[in-house]
Write a structure and sequence with these properties.
This protein has 186 residues and is an alpha+beta fold. It is 21% helix and 27% strand. Strand 2 and strand 3 form a beta hairpin. It is globular, with a radius of gyration of 18 Å.
């Protein structure tokens, strides 16, 4: 009985709720952001991380032709030998995250906090990729996102670090200065 009670206490203490943020934007109309529950938090796997960069581009599925016979544009590795494996001239924006936004991103990716409402759609039109670099500026991990479809692709070392809400990720990109989003394209 004591073990069950202790288990219940540990579970209750480990779950944390974020407060609702209410802001008055758009002519004084209150906007309430969704409440997310932190279910699980873990250490970020990239220990030799130095820089985090966010790239935006038009839907990669339309223009990415750099594929091999064994892969297609949906399954290929986006980084090979620590370098991008697609045409980087198609990149519209490159933003290096400052230390505050880098910490916010790592916290976002290290916890499972998204409610079930954000299920992926049956599409994949990626327009953003997060590149994780080491001190030698080599790409050591990536996560490509399709914000409109709620889909992603990632390097193997970042598998299972996807419990974030896509709306939170989009908000972080906007704070970083990214301007290209789904509505900006044809």
């Amino acid at each position: 009985m004591r073990k069950i009670f202790l288990l219940v206490v540990v579970i209750l203490v480990s779950c944390k709720y974020e407060k609702k943020e209410v802001s008055t934007e758009n002519e004084g109309i209150p906007i309430v952001k969704s409440v997310s529950k932190i279910i699980n938090k873990r250490d970020f796997p990239l220990k030799n991380l130095s820089k985090v960069e966010v790239l935006s581009y038009e839907d990669r599925m339309r223009w990415d032709r750099k594929i091999t016979k064994k892969d297609n544009k949906y399954t290929k590795d986006l980084v090979v030998d620590h370098k991008l494996n697609f045409d980087s001239t198609k990149v519209k924006e490159r933003v290096l995250l400052n230390s505050v936004l880098k910490t916010e991103l790592l916290e976002l990716m290290s916890q499972d906090s998204c409610q079930v409402e954000e299920l992926p759609a049956d599409c994949y039109m990626p327009r953003h990729v997060i590149l994780f670099r080491d001190k030698k500026n080599r790409i050591i991990g990536y996560k490509e996102l399709c914000l409109s479809c709620r889909g992603f692709r990632e390097s193997k070392n970042l598998e299972n670090y996807n419990g974030f809400c896509f709306s939170q990720m989009e908000e972080l990109f906007k704070k970083a200065g990214i301007k290209y989003f789904d509505e900006d394209y044809e």
